[in-house]
Structures are given as C-alpha cells and as structure tokens.
Design a protein that fits this description.
18 strands; 2 domains; ten-stranded mixed β-sheet; about 35% strand; alpha+beta; about 25% helix
C-alpha cells in the first residue's frame, strides 16, 4: 500500500518535526510511506498512491480531500490543527498513534462534500461574524483556542447583524443574521457544535442562521454550542437543503476555517458520498 503523508508546518500552535519521525517508525512493512510539505502538494503527482493523509487542521484536510475526491483516493487524517472540526466530528483520535491505528485498522466510509460556487468544502463554510473572525484570525498569526477566543472578543463589538436572502431547494426566505454556517459536519472545532444534527452521509447540508447575542446571553450560547443540541430558539434558526442560493451574505466567507472573498451571489451544492475517508471501526 502506498500512502502520501501531507504535512502543514503552520497548522496548530506549533509544528512538531518529531511527528514525521513518529509516523515513520510506526509504518507497517506493508506500507510504503512518502512525506511532502503542503506547499509542494499542488505540483505533486498523486495518482500512484492508494491513500492521501492530511497532517494538520481543517484547511489542510480540505486541500488533501479535494484531491482525493477528484482522483477517487482514500483520505486519512492525523489531526494537528487549532480546531480540528472534521476530525472531531468523525471521532478520529487526536493523538498520532490513535490516528494511525484508524488509518491502518479502521474502516472506509463514503461521505458527502460540497461547493460554494467552485470552492470545495468538506466540513463547514460560513459568512458574517464567523467569516470575519476567520479573516482576522488568519491575519493575526496567533494559533490555538486562546487565539480564537481573543479574536472573537476583539471582534464582537464591531460587528452587526445583516440581512440575507436564502433560497433553499427553491424556497426563498429573507431574515437577519449575525453569523451564518453551512454545515456538512457538525462543528466549527474544539467541540463547539454549530449543527449537532448534521449527517455527513445524508446528501443534505444544515444551515444555521444565528442572531447577534446580547452580552448576558454569551454564557448560555457557549453552553448551547457545547451541548450537542440543535433546535430553533431565540438565537438560532436551522434549515436543511441540498441546493442553496444566497444573496447579500457579504463577500467575506470562510471555507473549512480558511478565509476567502467571494462574490455577493452564491450557490452551494452538496455532492453525496463523493469522498472515501478512513474512520475508526
């Protein structure tokens, strides 16, 4: 079996060179492992490999998963990011040994992927406040949960609600939003779940539209995002759809946590069971 391991030195708080050595020392004799920096991945020929393994966070996983989808290769994940939303959702261990056991001894499942216009995503894409935070977080260079928390606190007072028009499977609705998530997986990362009922194999996307909370609501919001519940309430309205059109959602978006600038009108489509990924048995 030939596996290409794609590592990202900028993922998470700090890159650990020992990760490559640890993986190499644990490779079975039946596995031929090759390692490459993600900066060289675009020019790498990958059709000869059976599996591509992303060593990094959701952005790294997105890049590698896109190639796996295109070339019908199996995706493996060794989580090393700041939030690791997809890995947590798929219950992939966050230690190297556990993740490798999943890669070598786990099972292969088929999961959905999606696109915002032509931009591939696998976990969560979003607009509004969460996109603003992603752009500011990306520019700050400070990684980890503390970096996210500081960015959120610094940004909260400056951002206001907007109005968005959603067309969900042909049905149009207009409503105010502070943050808008289109979820294939359930969580942003760090076990904060934005769409706890998301099913990554159902051919549908969960749309979570959040109003701006008042300061006294912040603690209850945090508890809610940790509660593994998904319900319409004073802050959240949820929808499910396989095709989504958006107007006036803003140009700032994130795709699996990576900041991106998009045109004002957007179309989102899900591609059912288009990616093979190894998960725990």
């Amino acid at each position: 079996m030939k596996i290409l391991f794609v590592y990202n030195k900028k993922a998470g708080k700090k890159y650990e060179p020992s990760v490559v050595k640890e993986i190499t020392s644990r490779l079975p004799n039946s596995v031929e492992g090759t390692f490459i920096d993600i900066r060289d991945f675009a020019d790498c020929k990958t059709k000869k490999f059976d599996m591509l393994v992303a060593i990094g966070g959701d952005g790294t996983v997105n890049t590698v998963a896109k190639r796996c989808t295109k070339q019908k290769l199996i995706l493996g994940i060794i989580p090393k990011g700041s939030g690791d939303g997809l890995a947590r959702f798929l219950e992939i261990p966050r230690d190297v040994n556990g993740a490798l056991s999943t890669i070598f001894s786990g099972k292969t499942i088929e999961i959905d992927t999606a696109k915002v216009d032509k931009n591939f995503f696998i976990n969560v894409a979003g607009a509004g406040f969460e996109a603003y935070v992603a752009h500011k977080f990306g520019a700050s260079g400070i990684r980890g949960l503390r970096g996210y928390a500081n960015t959120i606190l610094d940004s909260f007072s400056t951002q206001e609600e907007q109005e968005v028009t959603l067309t969900l499977n042909g049905k149009k609705t207009t409503l105010p939003f502070f943050s808008l998530s289109v979820a294939n997986g359930s969580q942003w990362g760090n076990n904060f779940e934005i769409a706890s009922e998301a099913d990554i194999q159902d051919g549908m996307l969960d749309v979570a539209v959040m109003r701006k909370p008042k300061w006294p609501q912040i603690l209850s919001l945090i508890i809610y995002l940790k509660s593994k519940k998904q319900e319409n309430n004073s802050l959240f309205t949820y929808y499910k759809a396989s095709e989504i059109d958006l107007k006036r959602s803003g140009k700032l978006w994130h795709i699996d946590g990576e900041p991106i600038v998009l045109k004002n009108k957007k179309r989102i489509i899900v591609y059912p069971k288009s990616l093979k990924v190894n998960v725990s048995s």
